[in-house]
Amino acid sequence: xxxxxxxxxxxxxxxxxxxxxxxxxxxxxxxxxxxxxxxxxxxxxxxxxxxxxxxxxxxxxxxxxxxxxxxxxxxxxxxxxxxxxxxxxxxxxxxxxxxxxxxxxxxxxxxxxxxxxxxxxxxxxxxxxxxxxxxxxxxxxxxxxxxxxxxxxxxxxxxxxxxxxxxxxxxxxxxxxxxxxxxxxxxxxxxxxxxxxxxxxxxxxxxxxxxxxxxxxxxxxxxxxxxxxxxxxxxxxxxxxxxxxxxxxxxxx
Amino acid sequence: xxxxxxxxxxxxxxxxxxxxxxxxxxxxxxxxxxxxxxxxxxxxxxxxxxxxxxxxxxxxxxxxxxxxxxxxxx
Lengths: 253, 74
Fold this sequence. Notes:
Chain A has ten helices and eight strands. By secondary structure, chain A is α/β, with parallel strands linked by helices. In chain A, α3 runs parallel beside α5. The radius of gyration of chain A is 18 Å and the shape is globular. The termini of chain A are far apart. By secondary structure, chain B is mainly β. Chain B is about 15% helix and about 35% strand. Chain B is built from two helices and four strands. In chain B, the strands form two sheets. A two-stranded antiparallel ribbon of chain B has the order 1-4. A two-stranded antiparallel sheet of chain B has the order 2-3. Chains A and B meet through β1, α2, α8 and α10 of A and β1, α1, α2 and β4 of B. β1 of chain A pairs antiparallel with β4 of chain B, so a sheet runs across the interface.
């Protein structure tokens, strides 16, 4: 059987979901954002929620998320996505509301909004992309940058006396009464992509069941900011990011 | 014994040549083409189509959702 004979609709195993539109994504080649966008789109299609989902886009590389997923979007001021999501979910409680934020958005400028929304137990899902760097603005140090990790504002590596310690905000959010599900995942291989998809789906279902705030951290790569190839970034992440940000469920009520 | 044969179709213009599918493929079916697409990226192609089992590992890890996978029992 030739390749051309195999390529026919009845043999289809995997194709791009329709929730993800045909606009080419602006992300760098190999960026983890694309995988997470794809997973969110697939879950929305599987849940048949395309008309009932409102995403809150952050400031950061994912600011243009509204161009790629064919659902309703709001774009928040820097770090204010959980506050905006609170308003949207309270006004339209039958909708699925999620925020999509990077570490600079969620763990730096938006720390207050994130912690208070989670503490109030708003029925939203927070997707947190943690690559330990400010990708969009040129690889500056973020709160989640590892000790010793080089960035454009810590060219000799981050040190605790000068720059403070890395902030494990997901662990912090797990302590709060309002959160029902806090997990840390990654998307560097097939198994981890499947697990992350399950985690995001669970977060979405929790928010529709009114259980409280769900947080899914995705430990990600920023190969441009890290100055590595996409494949080497994945290896670097496994070696260096996972010891500091271990993949596990931190809370599951 | 039934044999499984697969095939992948890469959306050439959408592919950014990140090489993650090449690394993910357990059967070494994929490689980056020497020729580039209109944006200058060396897109992914099947260099060993006979080895493809249609496991879709390439499609799962593709950040740009440009891989479609087909599979058939022969």
